Every structure is written in structure tokens, then in C-alpha cells.
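In response to the reviewer comment on reproducibility (Comment 2.3), we provide here a single inverse folding case reported in full, input and output, so that an independent group could reproduce the run without further information from us. The C-alpha cells appear first.
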């Protein structure tokens, strides 16, 4: 079989270069399974592209996250995804002999990678318009300045995990030294270096720890508010305000509402508030302190509203009627002749689901006591209603057995939603044997209890 022509190789080279990494891996697998001269040529071209990309990722690794938007939606420094491939060809064309060194993992390979990043910075300054046609002069200068800091960022990444935890004095000194070195490279180099580190953090809140370690303990908030590092705190606090507003606007009974969305927002806000309290200890009269307090209060008020609504919704699905006791005395008893209203049941389920979901984050917002009191009250109310309803069912006082069972089954479901699992199991077990002969009821109850213990 004939080899590929020059035109075919050129066309294939363009196609392979345009393939994203996922498709390139599939193409490599496909080429390896093919036979013939052309297949072998294709395989060689794909392998060469894979090797070249691996080397590029090694050299440009410290800046790689800057060429992808943040997944959490927070603001951050970023550049077009297609720039690295074009820039790599310019940065390596004069020194191709250095590339094999990038296949190693040693100090020399790091030096080569840093040198190629400096070459890339020069290429951006010389040919920025061709690399990024829509860019402004300031954007081109920012990209070049980031490549100036790539070597320093590479060393910082080795300490980033420590800086996000509880670094010792040596690690903290490394961070402050890196910021001073960045500032010596460019006047705004320290902020730019922190932008690069921020891009590597999938959880933006971890940046608060890095920022805290970079500032003096005494007067930390005052120093931060006046420094170039304030932008990172601003981003997290702004995101907190946004997600708190989302949580406060959530309506669990709306069509298509997903309680998991509320849970995700509340968990994120609770974790963020805890992180801010630990890392920054904001003053109550500062802008950041007021913003976090407002976010906490807004969510707490909304949760209190939902707790009250849940109590009303539960009452709507537990109908009662007055029954005679002695003489003219009466008492409320479960009413079992009404079919379950689907809309009322759906509303009760949606609202009581919230009570169970917010068990963890409610403490951070200062409304856990309210949530617990509501849950305990509903547990007693639902369990008592179900217990009396089952007694009436056993006594044959239910006008419609099927309707009564559906109503009691609903109370068991509601108990589970608020986290009262033991009460839920008790109601379900009793409902299973309700109305059966005593011998069968005892046997069923015993077997059910055995399965639960197992």
C-alpha cells in the first residue's frame, strides 16, 4: 500500500491538530488497530501529536487553568482556549532540541520548561495580534506577564496544598517570599501570581486561606481591604450573596422545584460562612462583615418561613372530626372518610422535605433550634394522628378502608421526610397488620421487627 502523499499528510496534520484531547485519544486507539503503510503513517502522526501536547502541558502547566473558564462561575483571569497551541509552535521553533528534556521529571526539565515559558512571553509581545486577533493591547500584555511568572508559579504549586491547610512558619515564609519575587518582576506581579494560583483551585473558598496566610495577622481585614488581594475576598463574598439570594428565593412548592438545588445552595453558603469565620474573622461593621451577616440573616428568615409553612401544610393533610367521649364531651379524632387531596399532599411533601434537608446547614444560619422544634412537633403530631387512625382502623370505624390506609401511609412518608425514621417504621409496621386477626398481626409484627434488626 502506498504511503501518504504530501498533501494528505498536510491535511491530516491540520485535522489531528484540531482534535480535542478526548478525540485524539480515540484516534490513537483506532490507528493502532489498523494495518498498512498509511495506517502506520497516521499512527506515527498521532503519536507525535500526543507527545507534543504532553510536552506542551508540562511546560505551560502552571498557566493551563487560565485557558478554561472557571466551573463555579466566579470571576477570574482567563484567556482563549486556542492560544496555547499557537503559542507553543512559536515558543519552540528556535529551540526544538530542548523538547526531549521535557520527557524527564527533574530540575533540568523544569529549567527548560521555564525557559520555554519566557520564550512564549516574548512571542506574545512580538506577535500578540496573530496569536489572539480580538485581543486588546492590555490583554496581550496581561498574557505575556503571566508567562513571565510561569516559572515562579510552577514552584508555588508545590506548596499550594500546604498553604490551603495549616502551613508552618517555613511554608508561610515561602508564600510571602513568592509574592515579593512576583512584585519584583512586575508592579502588579503579586496579584497576578495569586490569579494564577486561584485558577488552580476548583473550590474558590480555599483562596481565602491562601490570602489569609499572605497577610499579617494584626489588622488582617484592614490590610486586605487596601491591598490587591481584596479582589479574591470580594469574589467569594459576592458569590455568597448571590447564592444566599437564590436560596431565599427558592419556592419548594413551585412546579419543577428541586429541593436538591436548595440543599446545594445552603450547603455552599454554610461552608463559605464557616470558612470566612475561620480564615478572616471579619469585623461586624466592615463591608464584608455586613455582607456575610445579611446573607446569613436572609437565609435564616426564609428557612423560618418554610418551617412555619410546613406546619400548616402538614395540618392540612391531617383532617380531624369531633367524636363523643362521655356525655356531651367530645375530642378531636382522625377523620378517615376523606380521600387524600393530591395538591395538598404534594405541598406537604415539598415543605417537609426542606426540614429534613437543612438539618446540617441550619446550625450555621442560627435556626437549627427552630428547625429541631418544628421537626419534633411535627413528629409528635404525625405519629399521634397515625396511631389514633390505626386504632380506628383496627376497630372497624373507618368508613373506607382503602382511603384510610392511603391517608395513614402519607403520614408515614411525611415522617420519613423530616428524618423521623423510627416513627416512620413504626407507623408502616402497624399499618401493615392493621385490621388483621390477632394471631396474624402478632406474627407479621414480629417478623417485621426481626427484619429491621437484621
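Designed residues, in position order:
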Amino acid at each position: 500500500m502506498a504511503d501518504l502523499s504530501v498533501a494528505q499528510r498536510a491535511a491530516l496534520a491540520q485535522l489531528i491538530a484540531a482534535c480535542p484531547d478526548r478525540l485524539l485519544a480515540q484516534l490513537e486507539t483506532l490507528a493502532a488497530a489498523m494495518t498498512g503503510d498509511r495506517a502506520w503513517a497516521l499512527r506515527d502522526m498521532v503519536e507525535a501529536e500526543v507527545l507534543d501536547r504532553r510536552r506542551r502541558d508540562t511546560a505551560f502547566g502552571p498557566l493551563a487553568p487560565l485557558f478554561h473558564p472557571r466551573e463555579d462561575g466566579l470571576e477570574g483571569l482567563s484567556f482563549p482556549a486556542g492560544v496555547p497551541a499557537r503559542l507553543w509552535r512559536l515558543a519552540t521553533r528556535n529551540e526544538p532540541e530542548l523538547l526531549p528534556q521535557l520527557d524527564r521529571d527533574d530540575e533540568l526539565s523544569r529549567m527548560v520548561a521555564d525557559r520555554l515559558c519566557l520564550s512564549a512571553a516574548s512571542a506574545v509581545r512580538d506577535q500578540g495580534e496573530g496569536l489572539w486577533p480580538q485581543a486588546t493591547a492590555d490583554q496581550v500584555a496581561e498574557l505575556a506577564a503571566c508567562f513571565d511568572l510561569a516559572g515562579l508559579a510552577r514552584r508555588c504549586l508545590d506548596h499550594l496544598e500546604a498553604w490551603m491547610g495549616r502551613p508552618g512558619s517555613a511554608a508561610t515564609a515561602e508564600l510571602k517570599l513568592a509574592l515579593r519575587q512576583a512584585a519584583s518582576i512586575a508592579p502588579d506581579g503579586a496579584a497576578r501570581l495569586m490569579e494564577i494560583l486561584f485558577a488552580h483551585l476548583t473550590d474558590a473558598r480555599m483562596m481565602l486561606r491562601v490570602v489569609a496566610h499572605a497577610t499579617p495577622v494584626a489588622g488582617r481585614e484592614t490590610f486586605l481591604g487596601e491591598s490587591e488581594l481584596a479582589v479574591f475576598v470580594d469574589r467569594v463574598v459576592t458569590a455568597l450573596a448571590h447564592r444566599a439570594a437564590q436560596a431565599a428565593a427558592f419556592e419548594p412548592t413551585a412546579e419543577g422545584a428541586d429541593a436538591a438545588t436548595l440543599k446545594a445552595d445552603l450547603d455552599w453558603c454554610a461552608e463559605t460562612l464557616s470558612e470566612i469565620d475561620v480564615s478572616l474573622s471579619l469585623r461586624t461593621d466592615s463591608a464584608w462583615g455586613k455582607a456575610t451577616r445579611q446573607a446569613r440573616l436572609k437565609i435564616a428568615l426564609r428557612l423560618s418561613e418554610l418551617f412555619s409553612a410546613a406546619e400548616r401544610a402538614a395540618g392540612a393533610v391531617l383532617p380531624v372530626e369531633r367524636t363523643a367521649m362521655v356525655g356531651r364531651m367530645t375530642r378531636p379524632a382522625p377523620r378517615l372518610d376523606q380521600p387524600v387531596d393530591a395538591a395538598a399532599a404534594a405541598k406537604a411533601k415539598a415543605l417537609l422535605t426542606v426540614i429534613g434537608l437543612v438539618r446540617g446547614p441550619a446550625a450555621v444560619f442560627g435556626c437549627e433550634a427552630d428547625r429541631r422544634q418544628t421537626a419534633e412537633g411535627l413528629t409528635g403530631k404525625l405519629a399521634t394522628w397515625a396511631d389514633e387512625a390505626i386504632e380506628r382502623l383496627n376497630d372497624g370505624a373507618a368508613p373506607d378502608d382503602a382511603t384510610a390506609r392511603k391517608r395513614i401511609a402519607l403520614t408515614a412518608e411525611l415522617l420519613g421526610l423530616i428524618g423521623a425514621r423510627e416513627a416512620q417504621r413504626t407507623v408502616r409496621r402497624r399499618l401493615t397488620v392493621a385490621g388483621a386477626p390477632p394471631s396474624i398481626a402478632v406474627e407479621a409484627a414480629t417478623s417485621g421487627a426481626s427484619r429491621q434488626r437484621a
